[in-house]
Amino acid sequence: MSQLSVLYDAPGPRAVRRARIGTILAILVFVGFLAVAAKRLNDRGQFASELWSPWANPSDENFSAVWELVGKGLAATLTAATLAIVLSLVLGVLLGVGRLMLGPILRVPVVLWIELFRALPVVVTIVLVWRAFKELKIDLGPLPGDPGLWYLVIGLTLYNSVIIAEILRAGVNSLPSGQGEAALAVGLTNGQTMRAILLPQAFRVMLPALISQLVVALKDTSLAAVVSLGYLELLRRGNLISQNLDNPIQSLLIIATIFILINYALSKLAEYVERRMSRSSGDPAAAAQLEGAGA
Amino acid sequence: MSPVLDNLDLYWQGFLTSLGIIGWALVGSLLLGTLIAAFRVSPVASLRAFGSAWVTVVRNCPLTIVLFFMAFGLPEVGINVSFYTFGVIGLIIYTSAFVCEAIRSGINSVSAGQAEAARAIGLPFTKTLTQVVLPQALRATVPPLGSVQIAMFKNSAVVGAFGVGGDLWSVGRNLTSAQGYAFIPVLTGVAIGYLIITLTAGALLAVLERKVAIAR
Amino acid sequence: MRLTKFTAAFAGLVLAGSLAACGDDSSDSEPEVVTDAEFDSGTTMAKLKEAGSMTVGTKFDQPGFGLLGLEDVPEGFDVEVAKIIAGAMGIAPEDIEWKQASSDIREQVIEDGDVDMVVATYTINEERAERITFAGPYYEAGQQLMVNSDNDSIEGPEDIKDNPDMKVCSVTGSTPSEQIKEYLASDDQLVLFDIYDKCKDALGNGQVDIVTTDNVILLGYVDESDGDFKLVGEQFTEEPYGIGIAKGDVEFCEFINKTLADNEDAYVAAWEATAGEVEGTETPELPEAAPCA
């Protein structure tokens, strides 16, 4: 923000007056829109207390059941997102280091893999994973939890790991080239240089981007609600609750708020970490640039 | 692969429908995103607040939920258009937040000295922005804006689950569930369709990036 | 208020469900759990009885038939039918694991072996019978149309062609979505969702004009709409609901048919406690089972 104020002079009395008029006008327009929307919602009975009370009124007979179900859904969503990010980190580092260190020929399959899963819609990847595991008769039974969870997690991992691999590559490339050259000059091997010199620094630069990727994964878990995986994450739970109570708008609003609050907290954390990191070496912006728009 | 070859015309139609969705959303999200970005740097406080609230809410909300609100919420406030239009609007709204952030990061990348110099020679806000800052910002904006849009191309698959019908994803679902074709070949066809779109876009973006690249 | 009646019906459902779940001895709809049944070794029944548990695929979003309630257990007619069959193998309702089997993946979950059987408003047809085996039918439904109460231009499926601007809503992979096609002026008239509930919401807010599926499903929506929706025209198809099991498991199929025939009282009680609560429904008689193949 401090930089943006460079764009215009400190406002004089007239500019202040104009800005104030602009502010009032904008607020009026906005409030007008809200009022029209609220009136129409009211006409359609969307503010009826029966629709809200299971969510808002603790003495409602369904209040505790509904929030218990939301709790289960939230746990399912967080489980899937956390597993996906942890697995993505492991696979992503392998892929990223592979792309950086393998020879020109050995690198080809890694690059193809990365480009393939970066280019596929996550929702297609998830369904492909589900069917591929079934047709290849790979039984996920021994893994804890519902198989639907694992199809979702593996699908999300395939996507997020290649993004992390690219973040890692950008992180390493953002380091001053003198770092690697100095390490090689004192006699470290390529592998030692990567492990002891480049990766530790790259990780620090990458950390904010990694946290942002957690937001992407968290949002993408809700794709389970539009493919018939049968994994009851937060959004699917919300849909099922609203079918019992016949209040889709209200239920969606609650579910959306939960998602937004969690993701907002995570992105604030990412910003905080980024600010701390930017005091040290490296260029966090380069790594953060890769952070795409997940579903 | 016969399910794909047998239904090549369906796939082609689906491909075109998906391209249509993508085209509208591309134009719409760039316009809306730029507008929101302008709000965020504007001198009017309420617009700035609106802009940052928009980005915070939309960016942190899953696309699936945004689409739910389009398809089932907008009709409740009396907006009745086709599910295709709802899908496109949802995609535009969702993507606009990322477009806004990409543009803002581009503006941030222009060093403060440029704006200071522009003001020092007497340019007002609008000229500082349009003739000095934005042209430079645009170059730095191309790579992030490109990846935001490619992400949107992929996200367009989700729109198919909201009553749109006829897009690549819906074609795949219809072939597997209603007509009983095996999933893997059908989905491979769907995947190839999206790969054509995203890989082509990626290649175009790379060319564009090289053209606007600036040495810093 | 459109909700009060629904809430009452829902409370009734919950009550019926919880009575059954608690094993209250006053309830005659409690499915009987036969502990001393004998089965030839190697049959599905013997395996399930041995395991003492089974996995059943049902819908989680079909009011009256299979709806995941707020107690996190599915409720409805299909669910009760499954409990009767499980009971005959000595499996108590609480030992059934319920899996979501939405219209588009029912054959798939049976073929994959994810479930032991599917009871999910599952119309018997030849196409599906190529991939799985159907026991039953246990219920005869028929496809019908539901419109907003103020819609006078649609009186039956034949009127759809004359109103090409009207949108018809159904569910991906369902038989109604296929069978309605011959009545449409063009494919653009058809809007498909993954569940009927979205169709109902879309009809309520004017996004679509007609919802088509089996009469019993629609009746549930008409009932809870409190006069906003109505059914029009006659049933124009026959939809025998079957129970999907692994392809070629004739013994299991015959066992299911025999179990249902032996438990007609429980069958009727199951109906009355669930889908039968909706006004305008008639208590069905168990249809004669088709030969197993």
Can you walk me through this structure?
The complex is a heterotrimer of chains A (295), B (216) and C (293). Chain A has 295 residues and is an all-alpha fold. Chain A is flat and about 75 Å long. Chain A contains eleven helices and no strands. Chain A has helices at 13-43, 49-56, 63-101, 107-119, 122-135, 147-174, 177-185, 190-220, 234-245, 248-277, 284-288. The longest helix of chain A is centred in the first third of the chain and has 39 residues, at 63-101. In chain A, α3 packs across α6 (147-174), α7 (177-185) packs antiparallel against α8 and α9 (234-245) runs antiparallel to α10 (248-277). Residues 281-295 of chain A have low confidence and may be disordered. Helices cover 75% and strands 0% of the residues of chain A. Chain A folds into two domains: 82-231, MetI-like (MetI-like fold, Orthogonal Bundle), CATH 1.10.3720.10; 232-295, no CATH class. Chain B has one domain (2-215): Orthogonal Bundle (MetI-like fold). Chain B has nine helices and no strands. Chain B is elongated. Chain B starts with a helix and ends with a helix. With 293 residues, chain C is α/β, with parallel strands linked by helices. Chain C has a five-stranded mixed beta sheet. Chain C has a three-stranded parallel beta sheet with strand order 5-1-6. The termini of chain C are far apart. The relative contact order of chain C is 0.19. Classes of the chains: A mainly alpha (295), B mainly alpha (216), C alpha/beta (293). Chains in contact: A-B, A-C, B-C. The B-C interface holds B 71-72, 75-76, 80, 83, 161-163, 165-166, 170, 173-174, 176-178, 180, 183 and C 103-105, 107-108, 127-128, 131, 169, 172-174, 177-178, 187, 190-194, 198, 201-202, 205-207. Chain C: This is ABC transporter glutamine-binding protein GlnH. Chain C: Belongs to the bacterial solute-binding protein 3 family. Chain C: Keywords: Signal, Transport. Chain C: InterPro entries: Bact_solute-bind_prot3, Solute-binding_3/MltF_N. Chain C: It holds the Pfam family SBP_bac_3.
